[in-house]
Amino acid sequence: MTENFDVIIIGGGAAGLMCAITAGQRGRRVLLIEHANRVGKKILMSGGGRCNFTNLGVTPGNYLSANPHFCKSALARYKPADFIAMVERHGIAYHEKELGQMFCDDSSKQIVSMLLDECAAANVRIETSCTITRVKSGDGGFRIETALGTFAAAALVVASGGLSIPSMGASGFGYELARQFGHHVLPTRAGLVPLTLSGKHHERLQDLSGVALTVESQCNGETFRAGLLITHRGVSGPAILQISSYWNPGDDLRLNLLPDGDALARLREQQAERPLAELKNVLADILPRRLALRFCEIWLTSKPMRQYRDNELQQIASQLENWPLVASGTEGYRTAEVTLGGVDTEELSSSSMQSRLVAGLYFIGEVVDVTGHLGGYNFQWAWASGHAAGSAI
Ligand code: FDA
């Protein structure tokens, strides 16, 4: 026996839940199918357990996509203020941490509970631990064969996310389904991910694991000023996660280790004020001590400041402001926050997320080739694209 719905949504993450709520509120009969044992697992683990659910400063420029214009329409129609209004209606306490990043005061569980309450109020049916065995189209709709039975609907929304964190239910299912229906899938790779070092680059830094400082990371014309953390495998921290989305193996990646002001001016000032102090001790006062000492051991000489000629100070300043970080790779999908690439936006409507190839088929959230920066931008894309599809179905 086949059960009929107006909409079937595959994937109970941020995008799928928002789409279900929006379509359900419009009176559509919605079935949401999730293969994991509960919905919203990534929401639960996000933002260190407090869910950075949006960012007040969202602009299309915060997203990577082969078509940077694609995200504009959905983002313009569902804004951070719309999601915040829902959070407030549910009495969830929240705060701005920094740079427009909005977090729950208490727990990301509250966001999942809120979305589930909204689904219940909109009569959305949710099936968890439900494995899909086959998806077929025909007769003006879709038939989904699952371990729990066969379901049919005129509209099918693919909200199955990307490949990041397979242990949380991530799968390539959405990409396979896209290909099954003739869609192109742009190459995928891990984004917002720590970088690894190897060989001498690793040996030089590995015992500095735990050292943290503010840097400016630069690659392929993008710059992020944020924290860097040396790990036992390489480098992490927001400055690295952000730039990792713009980095491909072999690309030139530079770090400005002294992003607060003019390094040369600081060195000249120190030379005038502390002519007898050794460079390593001067640097240890402006950088984490262990890093400053290692820097001098490997890349710079250390002698009393008064012995440096000005052109030498210029070279040192340039090295500190333009340090080439030779990464060997990324930590991959195991720890990546997002997946870059995905379903090609050329074949989707930017206002409804509907396929231009197959009527009634929609793709939303991370499975689409739209990836945000770190800081609540990815959830905002999930809410906005879910809302766009839910409003159109
Ligand atoms: P999402 O991955 O959330 O959901 C997809 C769902 O589909 C999953 O529940 C999955 O189990 C299900 N699924 C997959 N295959 C299926 C199948 N075959 N059948 C049925 N169901 C299937 N972003 C942000 O803005 N702020 C933050 O604080 C964080 N923090 C963060 C921390 C960590 C550790 C990670 C890994 C990621 C983040 N992110 C984030 C990114 C954010 O979590 C991500 O961009 C969104 O969850 C994407 O939402 P989707 O609904 O598209 O996919």
UniProtKB/TrEMBL annotation:
Q: Which domain of life is it from?
A: Bacteria
Keywords on record = FAD, Flavoprotein
Listed SUPFAM superfamilies: FAD/NAD(P)-binding domain (SSF51905), HI0933 insert domain-like (SSF160996)
**Required cofactors, per record?**
FAD
InterPro entries in UniProt: BaiN-like, BaiN-like_dom_sf, FAD/NAD-bd_sf, RsdA/BaiN/AoA(So)-like_dom, RsdA/BaiN/AoA(So)_Rossmann
RsdA/BaiN/AoA(So)-like Rossmann fold-like domain mapped to chain residues? 6-391
The name this protein carries in UniProt is NAD(P)/FAD-dependent oxidoreductase
RsdA/BaiN/AoA(So)-like insert domain mapped to chain residues: 189-338
